[in-house]
């Protein structure tokens, strides 16, 4: 599958972006966990306009997500990834097969992405950690007060993800959203011999078990937090 995907991706770049400085194929096809509906995640580096933009299309029998950038826009989105501690752009360039590399920027930026991923995100500040603990504590209280299945399910669906982000970012590891969050949890589990990637989502259907799991995570970072929490507005 990977070889076929690489061939299709290179043909697309040759036809659509013959002046590209570099291009990379990433995502599930390169990771080896692609399914029947998986797309090709292709990042393209141009010298300037019309970049940056994102485009979805079908090509060669594949759905394709194109991320077209300049070096400046790549850096902009990597910086945004650092702030939210989710390395989406870094992985789209770093964890890839290089499709085109006319001036060395393909290999250089791929390695830079890998280095940035390996370095991990910045540590949570005390305020950031407290805000996560407080938010999770409030969700636990809301869950305890829930009287219907639909309300419990809605709260639990948010709670497990917030607890996962606390576990990961509190451990100075990358977070994510959706499937990306689960992948990061599985990486944590593999390194620590834990089972959070299964237990947390399963807690949506077993809220008593979810509370135990979330409290265990909170305890690693100071426990529940309500009394004494303070959040100050940032001056304009």
Would you write up a description of this structure?
This protein is α+β, with helices and mostly antiparallel strands and 236 residues long. The chain has two domains: 2-119, Beta Polymerase, domain 2, CATH 3.30.460.10; 126-219, no CATH class. 56% of the residues lie in helices and 13% in strands. The protein is built from ten helices and five strands, in the order αβαβββααβαααααα. The protein has a five-stranded mixed beta sheet with strand order 3-4-2-1-5, with helices on both faces. It is elongated and about 60 Å long.
CATH superfamily of the largest domain: Beta Polymerase, domain 2
By DSSP, the count of extended strands is 5
CATH class of the largest domain: Alpha Beta
- Largest pleated sheet: 5 strands, mixed
Q: Secondary-structure element order, as H and E?
A: HEHEEEHHEHHHHHH
**Number of discrete domains:** 2
- CATH fold name of the largest domain, please? Beta Polymerase, domain 2
Q: How does the helix and strand content classify structurally?
A: alpha+beta
Span between N and C termini?
52 Å
